[in-house]
Amino acid sequence: MTFQTLVFYFLAAILVFSAGRVITAKNPVHAALFLVLAFFNGAALWLLIQAEFLGITLVLVYVGAVMVLFLFVVMMLDINFEKLRGGFWKNLPLAGLVAGLMVVEMVAVFKSPVSGLSTVAPIQPQAADVSNTKIIGLTLYQQFIYPFEIAAIILLVAIVAAIALTLRGRKDAKAQNPGEQAKVKSSDRVRVIKMAPVIEQPAVTDEQKAAE
């Protein structure tokens, strides 16, 4: 066993541990910090296989931007996470079953000769003047174009699902309906009421009262 293999297993073990703590930590800030640790180990694994561009991108984009924003949101919002995690252990068996089924399906897709992923040719060594980014682009958009498009569709579905979950109707929240606002007519906003004219009577002075 080479030194590179030992480093890989060491980083992979920390990555699996930190990923598990992301979903099991009770404190959301601790979970976010464990996710940062997972990203760092993932970037180190990319560097281990000489994919410097992916490793640096993972650190800059996810650790430097996404996780900082997530920590700000978690620490600024007063969310009762204990209430949200109330049914975690109750739904864990079903979640484990679904996750296992997804793993079996992914293994079946990768092993299937129809997908073309089971007989992927190794990347040939390139000349020294060819950048790492160019090699990644050619491999991603030529050799793995169909898996890349499938992953993009899955991410799109996840975005739509996240928007649908956040737009659930609440009784204590007021919202505007742009469609109803666009269909409003002048008769809906202005109402003309016919009233009889009002004639003001002159005020009676004290002298007129005394004369009467």
Write down the Rg: 32 Å
Report how far the terminal alpha carbons are from each other.
124 Å
Helix content: 55-70%
Q: What integer is the average pLDDT? A: 79
The CATH architecture designation of the domain at 1-91 is: Up-down Bundle
- CATH superfamily (homologous) name of the domain at 1-91: NADH-ubiquinone/plastoquinone oxidoreductase chain 6, subunit NuoJ
Estimated share of beta-strand residues: under 5%
Tally the helices. Answer: 10
CATH topology of the domain at 1-91: Four Helix Bundle (Hemerythrin (Met), subunit A)
Can you lay out the helices and strands and say which pair or pack?
Layout: H1 3-24, H2 28-48, H3 52-76, H4 81-84, H5 88-111, H6 132-143, H7 145-166, H8 178-182, H9 186-189, H10 206-211
Helix pairs in contact: 1-2, 2-3
Q: Overview of this structure, please?
A:
The protein is mostly helical and 212 residues long. Among the domains are: 1-91, Four Helix Bundle (Hemerythrin (Met), subunit A), CATH 1.20.120; 130-166. The protein has helices spanning 3-24, 28-48, 52-76, 81-84, 88-111, 132-143, 145-166, 178-182, 186-189, 206-211.
What's a quick, concise take on this entry?
The chain contains ten helices and no strands.
Q: Which features characterize this protein?
A:
single chain; 212 residues; Four Helix Bundle (Hemerythrin (Met), subunit A); 10 helices; 0% strand
